[in-house]
Amino acid sequence: MPEAARRLHWVVPVQYRMRGLSFAATFAGFAAQMSGKGYSEVVWALLALQFLVYPHLLYWHACRAANPLRTELRHLPVDSALLGIWAGVIGLPLWITFTMYVSTTVNNTVSRGWRGALVSSGVFVAGALAMTLPGGPILPLPETDPIALALCVALLPLYLMAMGDISYYRNKKLREARQNLEQGELALLAANEALRAQLAEIDKLHNQLREQANRDSLTGLWNRRYLDSTLERELSRCKREGRPLALLMMDLDHFKQVNDTYGHAGGDEVLKQLGALLATHARAEDVPCRYGGEEFTLLLPNMPLDAAVERAEMLRTTFAAMKIRFGDFQITTTLSVGLAVYPEHGKLSDELTQRADRALYRAKVEGRNRVIVFDGSMAATGT
To answer: Which structural domains are found in the chain, ordered by start?
Structure first.
């Protein structure tokens, strides 16, 4: 088959093979039927042209057409009409006529359905009648020649089996295509699931990285960057809802002495234990942070001043009573706390932070290990 045919619709090359084989066999049947009956050389030439050359001309025409499939479907009724004409030419012998009718009708039906069968039957009968009604056949031969009959008996089942083989081949290809499609869909689903899992893993890693960027690696508390963004958000929410917001600023007393006495590992242990204390006593909405070095903060949304003072005192006394084990040592130290509350002490995040820090500074100045609430005198004196 030429390379161009492989790019055609499957009907075109299939019809070419079927037409070439069936027309060659039909030529043999006609030759047996017409042999010795006095047909002219012109008739024999037309017979050869029709059954031996015509199939190749149609294929050539279909291959070069703008729409090969549509062109080939138009060829099929022409086949039926010409076969009907030849059946009429030789006098409509029973078996030859029957074989040609069945073959061309089956061929049209396979390619065009019931509409093809009706069109094929109509043009076959019309072609036969066109040659028989005006004056009868050229040579009336109502009986089928024994050789022609044998060829017809062999040709018809072979032709039907060939059509069945074509149908089997097409069904097989369709099943394979369907299986490939199903496998492709399964592979696509698997790929989608894998991609979804990868995206989930990437999202998880992204969240972990984002949280790590907002977490203090030593204590596991939130860091200052997270506090800055959260304080703005919580202040806006409290303003909308008309609720208070307390900020505790805490600093370890004499932390340099702890590092000098027990080393930085001992100091780190003290920091971790304070972080654990803050995390343990934090509500779900509270935001405990390591602000930097030995300084910590605790953001308390929806907590009024009195409750915030009570919370700060509980944390201070609890931490002062802790004996932090470090190797063979037990470390004890204290905590100073400065407290400012929205809206009494500030309505902006910077105001609230600065005033809690001034209160912490006052706690340090007044002797450490105490809780100091910001007041107006601190703003006036700057201490």
So the answer is: 3-182 (no CATH), 222-381 (3.30.70.270)
